[in-house]
Protein 1
Amino acid sequence: MVEVAVLGSGSKGNSTLVRCSGAALLIDAGLSARQIVRRLREVGQDPDGVGAILLTHEHGDHVGGVRVFASRRGVPVFGSEGTLRAAAPALGPVDRCSFRTGAAFRIGPFGIRAFPLPHDAEDPVGFVLEADGVRIGYATDLGHVTHLVAERLTGCDLLVFEANHDRQMLLEGSYPWEVKQRVASRLGHLSNDHAASELSRIVGEKTRHVVVAHLSEKNNDPGLARAVVEGTLREAGHRNVAVHVARQDRPSVVRL
């Protein structure tokens, strides 16, 4: 069995646990180390059993808890060369392992491939992980979906995919205009409608679960994001896909 537990997702911090056959790794550690430990225990994972941390990019909501969590437990931190370089001040003296974006590598039972994402960071990536015959696609923090992103995510059993904001809420919200422009740009974040449209093309016969992630607290609503994604998938004929919404304040668990 493979289990994916989004420990928290949003602008205040992101971290996701993936485990299989007794092995466990984290994708990002942007929550505080204390919160990561607490939420790992909530989902039945010994924090000392985490074998690696994979970084998507260097922004604080993805690396904020890495230094304390990894250094206290001797956990190696994997990232693209650009991400590790940009995140170096935040990471401190942790054990770092670089990978080349696009390359495949293995950590325990997990086969992993990183692929580039269009976002305003040094070398941001998404991941496809395979273990026990299950394929997981992970892509948050992207302003648009390239052909390569769609290709990599096609054929996954589970997708963790960004639906950051509702366009109207963003436009009418309190953010300064330059921040609104950044969020809505091709190097920013996906809206609910954009995410739903792309998912309707990416989801295939194997796909059983979609976890909608990285929701803005100010410019989105969990019920709205789910309704938009679920409705678009149903209209496209994907009626057997369970749609989940990752939350900022508590874990969201899917087992395959």
Protein 2
Amino acid sequence: MLLYIILLLLFQSIVNPVLSYILISDIKKNYIQEGI
């Protein structure tokens, strides 16, 4: 059970920055395309 929690935390710490980076770059692309 402890191993599962550790793996989950590792997974989150790796995936969350990647997801937020993808979201931010997506928003920037849309922002630039709008020409605002």
Protein 3
Amino acid sequence: MKILLDENLPSAAWKVLTTQFPAKDIGRVGIQLPKGMLDTDLFSAAHKQGYDVIITGDIKQLSNTDERRACKAANMHWVGIQRNPKLKGKDIMRSQIAQLYFSLNFLIQHLEAAKEPTAFLLNPPQGKHSIAEGFPQPL
């Protein structure tokens, strides 16, 4: 399965994923495909280069009829990563990378088994930090 990361995701996501998932073919808009393409054209161009799934932070694509139709026509799967509106600056990037890193094996398993183009929308991280209630506490 070939995975394409959209240009709106942090470039660090590509570095993390290609290091941690070396057996997967993971590309990035801006390297394998040019930046600035219309999304409707991007899906077709990605499919022509053998990509099976696009992962993006542009969750509006899912509600845009033309973009959704173009993704389906290109036989591409679509994965959206929501932002946590409470986060600022680099915490946005870190949370998106963590969410994708944590979810990638699950996504690949389900997308490889899918019989038709499929969409997944990842929930944003629920808080700024994943620290259990009642912590920190003195030892």
